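Re: the 351-residue chain
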Amino acid sequence: MKIAMLLSGGVDSSVSLALLKEQGFDVTAFYLKIWLEDELSFLGDCPWQEDLQYVQAICEQLSIPLEIVSFQHEYNQRIVSYVISETRAGRTPNPDILCNKQIKFGAFLDHIGHSFDKIASGHYAQVESHSDFYTLRSTPDPIKDQTYFLSQLSQSQLARVIFPIGHLQKHEVRALAQRYNLPNKNRPDSQGICFLGKLKFKEFLACHLGKKRGEIREFETKKILGHHDGYWFHTIGQRQGLQLSGGPWFVVLKDCEQNIVYVSRSYYTEDKKRDSFFIHNMHWIPTPNDTQEYTVKLRHGAHKYRCTMEQINDQTYKIILEKNDQGIATGQFAVLYKGDYCCGGGVMQVA
C-alpha cells in the first residue's frame, strides 16, 4: 500500500511516519507550505523554516522521500478569505476545521489523485471501515482527541485517510519519539491557528481589517465605559483585554453596524441564559451507535455537554444543552457525538 504522509515537523506526525515505516508501508512524506510569511513577514518570525528543517532531518533519518507542496494560494482563497469575511460579519470562525476539509484532505487529495492509496496524518482520531460506510471515532486520549477538527470530512475523504497514532495517548507518542530517537523528540506541541504559526491573531486581523475606534458600552445601562479598536478584535464571552476597571467585564453583544461592543458584569445571571443554539448546514457522519443520546462539543477539548436535538428542516437543528455555556458564539462549530463516535457537526447560530 502506498501512503502519502502529511508531515508538519511536530512530534505527532513524525511518530506516525516512523510507525508506517516500521510497519513496512511504501511511504512518501509531504510538507504542505501554507504559511503566509510572504504577505505578513513584517509582523514577526514565522516558523515554517524551522518546521521544514525538522521535516528534512526526520525524512533523512528514516530514509523516506520528501516532497514540498505549496498551497498558499489555495489556503488564501479557501481559508483566509473565510476567516476575514466571518470575522468582519461579527462571527467567530474556526479555520482549522475547514483546513482539514478543504486543504489537507481536499486540495491535497486532488493533488495526489490516485497515485497513493491513503493519506496519513498525525491527528488523534480513528477511522473505522464498516460494510458500507466509514466512521470517525475518538482517540483514547480525551484531551488530545481531534475529531472536533475532522468533523466535516466526507465519506470519500474518510475512505482515503488513516491516522497511525489514533489509538494512542500523548504520553505513548512521546515515548515512541524517544524510542525512535527522532530529531524533534523533545519539541513542544505547537499552539494556535495553523497558518499563523507564531503570529498573533490580532495582528493578522489588523493587517486585513485595520483598526476603527468604537465605543465599549455597558449592556444594561448603555453607558460608555471605554473604547476599542474594532469590534472584530472581540468575541462573545471574552473577559481578557478589555482594559476596564471595576470588573470582571464580559463581552455579551457586538453591534457591527455601529461598531459598538457591549459588556456586562452580570454575565452569569439567569436572564442571560446560554443553553441553546441552532446548527446550520449540518454535516452528518454515520455511526454504528444506535443510542439516541447525543453529546456535543462547542470547541476543541475534552468537555462535552449532554444535549437534546430538535430538527427544524433538512439541515437545521436546535440544540439544547444540559447546562449553560458562556462561550456560545455565532459562527463557531458545534460537533455532535454518540458515545465515542463523532456524528459530524455544523455552524452555530445563537438564537
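The longest helix spans residues 95-112.
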